Amino acid sequence: MLANPHAATRRELLIASGTLFAWAYLPKLARAEGRDPRLLVIVLRGALDGLAAVAPVGDPDWVALRGDHALTLGGKPAALPLDSFFALNPAMPNLHRLYKSGAATIVHAAATPYRERSHFDGQDVLESGLAKPGAADSGWLNRALVSLQPADRAGGSRDAFAIGPIAPLVVRGPAPVLSWTPRRLPPASDDTVMRLIELYRHTDPVLARVLEERMGLASMARAGGMDGEQPRPVGAGQVRAYFAESAGTAAKFLARANGPRIGALAFDGWDTHAAEGATNGRLATLLGALDGAIAAIEAEMKEAWPETVVAVVTEFGRTARINGTDGTDHGTATVALLAGGALKGGRVIADWPGLKPSKLHEGRDLKPTTDVRAVLKGLLNDHLRVDASVLASKVFPHSAAVKPMAGLLQQA
Amino acid sequence: MALDPKAEAALALHRFGLGPRAGSIAAIASDPRGALIAELDRAGAGRIGTADLLTSGVAARAAFAYQQAQREARQAERAAQQANAAGAGAPEMKAQSGAPPPAAPRPAAGPGLPQQIYLAEAKARIDAALAADIGFVERLVWFWSNHFCVSADKGNVRQICGAYEREVIRANVLGRFGDLLLAVESHPAMLIYLDNARSIGPASIAGLRQRRGLNENLAREILELHTLGVRTVYTQDDVTRFANVITGWTVVPFRQDPVRGGEFEFNPRMHEPGAQTVIGKSYPDAGLEQGRAVLAALARHPATARHVASKLARHFVADEPPPALVERLAKRFIATQGDLKETAKALVSAPEAWEAPRAKLKRPGEWAVGALRAVGATPADIGPVMQAHNLLGEPLWRPAAPKGFADESAPWLDGLAQRLDIANQFARRFGAEADPREVFEEALAPLASDETRQTITRAESRPQALALLFMAPEFQRR
Hints:
- By secondary structure, chain A is of the alpha/beta class.
- In chain A, 34% of the residues lie in helices and 12% in strands.
- In chain A, helix 7 (140-147) crosses helix 14 (388-395) and helix 11 runs parallel beside helix 12.
- In chain B, 58% of the residues lie in helices and 3% in strands.
- Chain B contains 26 helices and 4 strands.
- Chain B has helices at 5-16, 24-28, 32-41, 56-88, 91-97, 113-131, 136-147, 161-172, 177-185, 188-193, 205-209, 217-226, 236-245, 288-300, 302-316, 323-335, 340-349, 352-355, 364-375, 383-391, 410-413, 416-430, 436-443, 450-457, 462-471, 473-476; strands at residues 249-251, 264-266, 276-278, 281-283.
- In chain B, a hairpin with a 2-residue loop joins strand 3 and strand 4 (281-283).
- The interface between A and B is large, with 39 and 37 residues.
């Protein structure tokens, strides 16, 4: 008797990290065309500063807007040129290489329909696919799967893989989902530690002192105050390792001949209010870790890479200007990063709104000119063959006016 | 300082219970003290379902049989290896014998039977804590279990430490202290943990025949930790004579009696003959009754009342408990002949128990269970919860010494950074579907500062918000 090739062993379940797949549903129409598409969605929680990830170096107002914090082609380290107008954060050489080879696309000045600035609500809108925040118990990726025909696979039991509670909202819902509980979760991020110490300082000096001592932050802050050098973030290596392991493990499963075809994971830590460090600090570390995760996906996908799309999205962007603590506050438009061998890439897609004060949303944020849902609908339609009317009604309800973006893929 | 009803309800849940679940604060807000007392008065309070758990006797015998089978398997394997080695030295024999002899079956992977029993008991305990409405009775169980602690790390205690808590602590947690004391000191787990099972009266039949003799360990800890308290009314001579009194309180050997092996017995052949004077009173030798009489006297001693009262007050209320509260509890304890339910009622009826500032750091177990309750998690796999206990220095039923885990806050402060990592993990593992704003309202809001509220609502993600909520001073302290 052959072992069921679809069933992940318990050991496998334990090694992956916060990654989710729906197994029983497959993009059947796409398969009928002889394709076997894979889609991995990565949610960046905390709101990525899109201008620090992909800088409009050709915009005449760019350097004035960000001053010393502006990424430039002549900076140290130098931003990586994408086209005559945009350049990529130097922490992302892998994404740059993929872009140059046509396997990455960047969509700029993009946003969900959400226009307030609450993380929780913004993440709900991004992941639920609903036009407004509110009670959401399912995500757009899951509802897209429901619209695909259940696969006729022996042993593809629908309820065999509903394990564990860690499901990003984007994949929660009626279609069966497999989730993994990671063997080791990463330690609390520096950002979480800083927020907690800040709270303790105001409310509980004893706890503040204990935590500061334990984290060695008191001494680090003193060292960082000298000669303007940024202290290296604690645990950068752990962040990189966690991102790469999570994404790489997800890809391993997606790559299998009889494995799942759709997955999602979430990375936290992008809420860079203070000491953003776009080129040599915290954000650079995170972007580097994300770049490593994309490289791990490419490596683990192997022969399936040409049929792969990775979509990296975040709930909203950040203020166009730097704030008073060398960071950025909650904003509106940002970037969506797409990578994968199935893309018709090497392009930055942007209806650039400009950076003059009058062009900024509410005078402070990059103005949204592209609806993220158009990008996602384009991918679901062309890659997985989710029907356009289903996309407009069920997957992204009340989005008929937002047309799927065409031409993202090599094979339309 | 008068609290508003919701704040008082939240304080009741955090200080005397295991922390709020959704709806807990609203459910008891009309009468928090009455709700605590009602939990004590509930039929069967303290007991938990035991359908799939073993009694200590059955567990002990099963573990003994398991260990014996393991030993035999190892011996068979060694014998096979030796035979193999002998064969290698004689090539012509090897050629004739063909395939090597089959290896003896290896012990199954995964935890052995004692650990399996331990984990099943741990699961039952955690489940009870998660299911409790308020958790006051569970906290009392935890308190008394720590007061009368045993350790799973001592040989052969692992498989029975959970049963010990159920059979002895839970059965008497709201009964009389004297009954609890007698049940504890005559349970195999305690007799093994503090070496009394092997203690032999020097002039007993067994003592005259062999070189082994008296072991004072249990007698000393009964006086020092379980009843009177350290540096009180007893002397070294009292310890020695009391140790003589309880010689013969032992455990039936497995080889001698396969049916009753592992159960408590009084063995007169090990018992020191003669009368013994303990703390100024002479006890004639009446076998088992001699020990019972001493324990009964210790349970009635005013020093025991003061010791128990100050420990209870320190555990629940303040590291330096208000003297008036200790006095009140000791008086009630004495007036009711050690009635633990009445003493617990006196605790939650005392104004001092509510007025003390919320300065005590929750113990790791309370805090971890409180976090799960706040998000409504009931994990099937308790691995991460057990790991949290271990990392935070309170491994379940495994204290480093008979004194048990510390009731004061200071020793637990060191683990604050580790708590943050656990908070981060729990938020991701158990809180994926919880809305931190709702959890905040249901578990913390009546006690929380504006700063805490803002920190939680401004977090960058729900998991971060939950982790910060678990770490908030108002969730750490009670």
